[in-house]
Amino acid sequence: MYITIADFMKEWHREAMLTQKVLDGLTDDSLNHQVYPEGRSLGRIAWHFTTNIPEYLAHFGLKIDRVENAEDIPASAKIVAETFKNISAQAATAIESQWTDDSLKQIQTAFGRQESNATILMGLIKHIIHHRGQVTVLMRQAGLKPFGVYGPPKEDWIHLGVENPPL
Ligand code: NI
What we know:
Blueprint: H1 5-24, H2 42-59, H3 77-98, E1 107-110, E2 113-116, H4 117-141, H5 154-157
Antiparallel strand pairs: 1-2
Helix pairs in contact: 1-3, 1-4, 2-3, 2-4
The structure holds nickel (II) ion.
């Protein structure tokens, strides 16, 4: 749990850097890859968790601009990745400039429960991680090698001197 804004920022910046590396590996074609025929596309999932960041923070009382044309999923992977980069930086600035360590202890209603702002901020990171995991699976299905977020993808085990990666 985050006791200070600095604690949160450390994790926010680290996770944003990892998410950025995943998004930087997307191609325009891969954005149309779907989970199943009527399912959400890879582009929709990546765009959802990106545009959700300011919506979520604004909902919980921070002043931050929403993404323009958030309802239109870009056809360009570069636009998705650049939007995430800008939004994650804007989110950091908004939180650092508008909330203090004390704000983290304040309680508000979130999803029908009483939660501290620290838990609410953790929820935002979890939401991104949840969808980022889906994105890496879909990238694999779309024929791309996903960035190894918390460990190497199978192609890179060999560079670590492992011939037969563990299952
Ligand atoms: Ni979601």
